[in-house]
Amino acid sequence: MSLFGLSKAKTRYGVIIDIGSGSVLASIVHSDPNKLHPDILWSHREHVPLKNISSMEQSAKAIMTALVNASMQLDAEGRKHLYDFDSKAELGEFQCGISAPWSYTITKSINYTQENDFEITNELIAQLYSAIGDKIKNDINQDEVLSALGLKVITRLLMDLTANGYHINQPEGNRSNTLGISQGTAVAQQHLIDAMDEIHDKLFAKADNRRLSFILMLYTMTKELLNQNYDVCLVDVTYEATEIGVVRDGILTYCTHTPFGSFSLAREIAQIVKIPLHEAFGYLHTEKPFAFLASLNEKQKVDVELVFEAYIEKITELFKETGDSLSIPKRISLHTDIKSEPLFTDLIGKAVTRNLKTSPIITTISSKIIDLCYKDQTENSSQKNVPPDTALLLSAQFFHNKDQYDTYEYF
Fold it and tell me: At 155, is the secondary structure helix, strand, or coil?
């Protein structure tokens, strides 16, 4: 899949929704195949109030409220900006990316082996692909925790095909005695999917409805933009969660998360320093996120450093859950709020070092998107058309390149 092979695609308009752990983004984008990046015609992020939330149920209700509020603004303000741009525009696609803890991404592989060579057919691939899907559904139903969440499959991604151990792109008609298939499946909570479907059916019924996990988008864009066809660890830091994805030999093999993100850090710091929550959050979103420690008394400084240490340890333990017996990859693809990149590059880097006993190679995916796809703006020292919202930056670029991703299947 080539980043620049977009000339055969058509001009498209779409709605992009990003459901994060502590906020909801709504936007309208225009994709011109002759450009490296889409045009963001309108966007709005609705934040969950910065307050202490004691349970997942409370968090879910707050996200639902944010989703409703964002959709109302989308229907009113968003449509106006669309028609100001093009009075004849039609919104043909509705793309919703969902982050942890509201979505889970499960990966499975299957190997079909015969003593003698057999012909690889589309029918055989479809049968094996379906068998993996059935296996994932059964695993969810048998897992008490996941089953209680009422999860629904929203996306399946064919990640890899191998014949006799070799990666293949055009398998049909070839002969082999072993065929391997790797599939990624994204699932999300039913009540959230129902809410999204209601918004789609009421406001954008004619648009194609596509839902997927944010980690799958991060996986796809990392492979494409960073040319990471081998081993890499994906890290997505949101307001209330940190999710990781382990990629082995170009295949996303395992995903997990911890319910602790940038808002979580800010809450604990605010309580220690006795300052408003938004002020603590602001400290963490600067080029020098640890500079505020110099203004604290000794006890406060020690206690805040313990907060950072506790987060590093949480991520260190998370990195031990790789789904196999291997350590996490040294290369890291990091996504977080662009203003918090200095903070989490440091914290994630320390967690990786504790696991590997060596320094990681961390690439911030947002910076890479800007460098490669918005170079017409950056070369002219203008950031006017570069979205400041990093989740929108990635989701919109995924939308822009969508026609290349023919191995995605949406439900």
Answer: strand
* Distance (Å, whole) CA 296 – CA 278: 17
Q: What is this structure's pTM?
A: 0.93
Phi, psi of 166, deg, nearest 5: -105, 140
What is the gyration radius of the CA atoms in the chain, in angstroms? Answer: 22
Please give the Cα distance from 400 to 396 (Å, whole number). 6
Per-residue pLDDT of 352-390, as tens digits, reads 999 999 999 999 999 999 999 987 665 555 556 788 899
Question: Helix and strand tally (H, E) in the chain?
Answer: 13, 15
Handedness of CA 188, 25, 243, 365 (dihedral sign): positive
* Contacting residues for 11 by C-beta, under 8 A, at least 6 apart: 30, 31, 32, 33
> Residues 103, 132: contact at Cβ < 8 Å?
no
How many alpha carbons fall within 13 Å on the CB side of residue 73?
16
Burial (0-12, 13-18, 19+ Cβ within 10 Å), 381:
exposed
310-337 burial: b if 16+ Cβ within 10 Å, else e? ebbebbeebbeebeeeeebbbbbbbbbb
Q: Is 403 helix (H, G, I), strand (E, B) or coil?
A: helix
